[in-house]
Design goal:
Number of strands: 0
Strand content: under 5%
Shape: elongated
Helix content: 55-70%
Radius of gyration: 21 Å
Distance between the termini: 32 Å
Largest sheet: none
Order of helices and strands: HH
Amino acid sequence: MSSERGPVFLERRTYRRRRMADAARLLPILGAALFGLPLLWGIEGEATPTTRVMFYIFSTWLVLTVLTAVISRYLRQEKQDPPDTGEW
């Protein structure tokens, strides 16, 4: 065995980039779950007003769009920054 080992932990920047990429991969699943939620509202016997459902769908769409823009901007910025060498 060699006496030198690699770092025990990932570099902070690499770790954050991977977590943001994971978040980007999970956004479509989150969106599908949130868009399917109004289907459960009509179980109580009364019909849910269409305006309420449309406001919910539009606001969900808006939130998912903003989240996607923030994540993609972060990932694009991380790609352009030079890697951290750990030196001052």
